[in-house]
Here is the input.
Amino acid sequence: MDLYNLTTVTQFILIGLSDLPEVRYPLFLTFVIIYQVTLAGNGAILLAIGIEKKLHTPMYFLLANLSLLDIFCPSATVPKMLQNLLTEDHSISFVGCALQLYFLVALAGTEVFLLAAMAYDRYVAICFPLRYTLIMTNMRCVQLLIGTWTAGFLNSLLHTMMTFSLSFCRSNRVNQYYCDIPPVVALSCSSTYMAEMLVLVVGGILGISAFLTTLVSYMYIISTILKIRSAEGKRKAFSTCASHLTVVCLFYGTTIFTYIRPSSSQHSPTRDRLISMLYGVITPMLNPMIYSLRNTEVKGALRKLLCF
Here is the structure.
């Protein structure tokens, strides 16, 4: 029997953001503040939508789910990262790593599909305003939400099962501050061809489909807005989707910058880990700020909430 076919790794070591003691504690304080701002901002959005009856529409139900994702996604990685920064123990169990990877990939995948659903909602609202309430019914909204969450979690289950069916019998040092597919697969001592092809094919098909849905929706939206004759009409139409468009650009921009960058010897592992913070921590903090600053209805609901 080939000894390398045996999985002997029982835990992984998450390489922290920095091993320098003088930087560790400032980083801990910084990310505690960022995490608290993320929870407070997205929690406020959820509370405002729940309290304000005027916001009980498909658009804001979708936004509420985005806020939930922006709470859950950093919660899958940040608490463990804070523990690693504060203590000398950077280990995570085999099962703990699998669970972290599963929820992280599931939540990130769900957000990709949710952004596509939100783009479709804005497409219907701007291109077919008179038929919007007939097309985007509460039942249709629920179906879209069930579809996005189910697709995200089933997709993650497939990737997680494939990743952790590999053999790990050499290094257990994950070159990241959380368990993600590429750094975990890189530790395998068995063939990773199927796991890598699964990410490329399944992830590529689903990701590109969601991206194209978002892109095509906004092509139609922009085309429709440009046909509006009055400047005030154009401004009002664009204001209904400006926040979502900003969030889409931020999400895909940080994702591409994190995962699709040319390899270079000048990229240090520490710098790559810091760059990954854009996608996993910074974006969820900025999303509620974008909606509260650019959306007048959300601003009004938050103002009522603060004055309550």
Notes: The mean pLDDT is 86. The first strand starts at residue 11 and ends at 14.
